[in-house]
Amino acid sequence: MPYGFCVPIRTLRCLPPGGHEMTHEDEDIKRLLTEAVPLLTPPMDRVGAVAARVRRRRQRLIGSSALAVAMAVALGVGGVQMISGSDAPPLGTADDSGGQGRWTSCADVVPEMTTAGPRIGAGDAVALPRLDGDFTPVAAVICELKTQQRPDGGQDGVATERRADEVDALVTALRLPDEPRTDGHCTLEGVVLPWLVLVDADGRWVRPDVPVDRCRKPRREVREALDALPLTTVATRKVAELVSAEAAAAGCKQRWKDVIALQATPEPDASRKALPEPFPAGHQFRVCVYEVLKSEPGTGNFVYGTVLSPDHRTAIEQGLKAAGSAAPCSARASRFALLWSVTSADTQTYVELDGCHRIMMVVPPGGPIIAQGDAALAELIGKP
After folding, report:
1. Burial (Cβ within 10 Å: 0-12, 13-18, ≥19) of residue 346
2. pLDDT of 289-338, one tens digit each?
3. What is the rounded average pLDDT of the residues 76-81?
4. pTM over 0.90
5. pLDDT digit string (tens) for 244-302?
6. How do residues 84-121 score in pLDDT, each as one tens digit?
């Protein structure tokens, strides 16, 4: 489980409207906003006002990343994370934050696991309420989204709920204070923490704040306690197919970038008359055909794939060798193919199966080479 996160923050000195002294939390919020949005021209009153509003809003919200939500509402800035664990609000439970009642399941409480997965950044974790003495956990629940291999070779995204009933070490670690912030350098590892819930004997639940070290990373004691939890899986459910059995059998990825389209304006080489040797001897080659997703331009979803037979390989090779310099064209292809060696992905050849019918060969260490294909080559490559 990867941990550790620290962000270098510029020092910002100013008072909010009214001139009152700012809390540590206000200072943290202002530093964050300075990093997250374009610099504002003096005076900086807007930043101070937003920091104060966020602090008040944070005290009323629990059970999710309250601080991130408040900032997104205030400024329209998405994906912001707070990197402070000080001045936490009082402990809250599901009973007084949305009326969700007693703990039921990850599926009920964390529906977002069906998309991005319930994994959170360090900033979200430290924006939660601090665990105090009025709440006595007897269990910990972790909600996760994992990859599961199927017997047919495909892969699924599976939502899991795991539970541990031995939580003394974790609770002790979570009750530790934050360490003083360092004035020195900190490393910049990315951080992901599990979506953690503590449950008491009455079934009430809370997502606890995570104490941080001198670099504002989760304290080592918390990371070690999480790693040592004796977790048992209590529920699993499939939420998405990540790789189809057909893509796995063909040796193709389920999704692949439309590399030619992502070359903003590929420049053809007018002096070049032919592509380099497309299929070096001694290698088997496979073809993977993708359809560009309308919902995600620039990304293709697997249609079909196969390892080329000798005859099919020869016919495609002749078509590639006959390609000349690319003609000017701005049409977007709806389907493309990737040709590459079964044993090595160093050389890749992309062919648009409609649109401009361009060919792109990527031969390291040089840059991409653009050529002009045609409908006959596209039909030869694109047929099952």
Report:
1. exposed
2. 999 998 888 899 999 999 999 999 999 999 998 888 888 888 999 999 99
3. 27
4. no
5. 999 999 999 999 999 998 875 555 554 455 678 888 887 899 999 999 998 888 899 99
6. 233 333 333 444 333 346 899 998 887 766 655 555 54
Please answer whether residues 198 and 140 qualify as being in contact, where contact means their C-beta atoms are separated by less than 8 angstroms: yes
Which residues, 6+ apart, have CB-to-CB distance to 93 below 8 Å? 135, 204, 205, 206
**Backbone angles phi and psi of 34, in degrees to 5:** -60, -35
d(CA 52, CA 32): 13
Both tokens assigned to 348: 């890749």
pLDDT tier at 65 (50, 70, 90 boundaries)? Answer: very low
Higher-pLDDT residue of 123, 280: 280
- The burial class, CB within 10 Å (0-12 / 13-18 / 19+), for 113 is buried
**Cβ-Cβ contacts under 8 Å for 119 (sequence gap 6 or more):** 144, 145, 192, 193, 194, 195
CA atoms within 13 A on the CB side of 247: 19
Read off the pLDDT of each residue in 154-168 and give the average, rounded to a whole number. 95
Residue 263 CB burial class (10 angstroms; 0-12, 13-18, ≥19): middle
Phi-psi region of 63 (alpha: psi -120 to 50; beta: other; left: phi over 0): left
Overall size of the chain counted in residues: 384
